Amino acid sequence: MKSAHLMQPETTLSAVVQEQAVRASPSQERIPVAVAYGDGIGPEIMDAVMRVLDAAKAPLSYDTVEMGEKVYQRGFTSGITPETWATIRRNRVLLKAPITTPQGGGYKSLNVTLRKALNLYANVRPAKSYAPFVPARHPDMNVVIIRENEEDLYAGIEHQQTSEVVQVLKLVTRPGCERIIRYAFEYARAYGRHKVTCMTKDNIMKLTDGLFHRVFNEVATEYPDIQAEHQIIDIGAARLADTPERFDVIVTLNLYGDILSDIAAQIAGSVGLAGSANIGSQAAMFEAVHGSAPDIAGKGIANPSGLLVAATQMLVHVGAPDTAELIKNAWLRTIEDGIHTADVYDPKTSRVRATTQEFAEAVIARLGEEPRHLPPVRYRAGGVNVTPSPVARSEKQLVGVDVFLEWNGANRSSNLLGQMLEEAAPEPWLLKMITNRGVKVYPDGLPETFCTDHWRCRFMPVEGGAVNFDQVLALLAALHGAGMDVIKTEHLYTFDGRPGYSLGQGE
Ligand code: NAD
Fold it and tell me: Distance from the CA of 62 to the center of ligand 1, in angstroms?
């Protein structure tokens, strides 16, 4: 029976904070954000950013929260106190300066903790060149990487299954794909971008990456104003490194996005100028891409640009695009005017070597001005809103089982293993194939194929069609009785008649 099932209605953060902003305007209330001053250069750059936000009359109020080095040292292994959690959960928006991760084991990454606990599913990292004002190898580069932040190989579900073999589970969900892909298209609209490129490896991972690609194709039809394309991740990454100017917005799975966003930041030549946003349906976190730079902490020379750019991303997100525009255009003008902190200072392109605070003053002095050479930014009111669509349930039928064995007998002869399994399998089971590391080794395997101690044995009913769970249990009992070391099983299902499993290589 097919049944329709609606996903839980989801209030988007943008919607929540915009509602607050709408409510706020008559009484001059401000949108509350939590602010973490961080470690190393964190307090200096946050102070500079706060001065710019105040001068621009950003419609925000601030709750300072404590996290990072000192909190780790007080014995909180996550680097965050219960009071801070409560404040972030109340405010739903966090502007965070970089923190120092203590050396040695036992400490959890604060960023990973925040991302997972607050369900921050989208990581948004613009990578842009500001040539000729800041020298860059790719002067026309202006790309935004939108990375799925929670799924894929980062679920951290790993097992050792045999003496020789370990595995990790790559989990990709339809709601997870849809949410991030919609976010990418909505982002493109909100920020006046024209093209979204999806990158996957679905020529190899037809189910997991294939789902991401398929959902991308479906969602793209709802955005006819945005050009949509797909590239296989390997050639896509090569093109990004070679001709980044051909990309606009890139949306991809977690691991690929992790790698791509670092490549993009590096080749843009502006890591110190880059901001990053982690967006969830209930909360969001904005920060610079760089770390706490302990080598220059306390010297007053750090570049506050990355955190300032992140703050403008935050302003757009909370429904204050005018203030974001005001600050970003003043900042672009400052960069154009050659007022640069030491990290980007170049005698050929810079005019003034500014301290952190001098740089902030220069931005403040330019509020209301626009860049003359670089394109000024224009942000759309309304931010990025993602409304998930209903998910239809499929009709699921059990049609077989993959039984995984650890087996190390008789020179690892797949023919011998195949014969043993055929003899042991009760009715209605038929051994369809055995694979080793995904390669078919029975029947008709090649002697050259290298085999480990980890065998995937596919059983399906002789007549085809459905089987039941009791029959699976009977098969497992028979294999166990025949002395086989069963290490795990995967059920083979069809969903609405389509196989929900991959074929073995060579099958
Ligand atoms: P880093 O980004 O802090 O520093 C790398 C180099 O870039 C240093 O030479 C530094 O002086 C320079 N630099 C960085 N930001 C700068 C700025 N705004 N202005 C001028 N120069 C700048 O990276 P790292 O040294 O590998 O890490 C230092 C600490 O930061 C570590 O404890 C690391 O765990 C932490 N970290 C935190 C975050 C975060 O909180 N999001 C991100 C990355 C690293």
Answer: 25
Question: 276: CA distance to ligand 1 center in Å?
Answer: 14
Q: Is the pLDDT of residue 16 over 70?
A: no
Quote the ligand 1 centre to 293 CA distance (angstroms).
4
Tell me whether strands 391-392 and 166-168 are parallel, antiparallel or unpaired. unpaired
User: What does the pLDDT average to over 246-273?
Assistant: 91
pLDDT level of residue 382 (50, 70, 90 thresholds) = low
State the distance between the two ends of the chain, measured CA to CA, in whole angstroms. Answer: 31
How far apart, in whole angstroms, are the C-alpha atoms of residue 505 and residue 488? 20
Question: Does ligand 1 come within 6 angstroms of the Cβ of 343?
Answer: yes
Rounded to an integer, what distance in angstroms lies between the CA atom of residue 213 and that of residue 201?
9
Per-residue pLDDT averaged across 177-203, rounded? 94
* Predicted local confidence at residue 19, as pLDDT: 40
CA 252 to chain CA centroid, Å, is 8
Q: Is the CB of 275 under 6 A from ligand 1?
A: no
Residue 385: closest CA among 130, 189, 96: 189
Mutation probe of ligand 1 site: the residue of 292, 301, 356 with most atoms within 8 A of C-beta: 292
d(CA 125, CA 140): 17
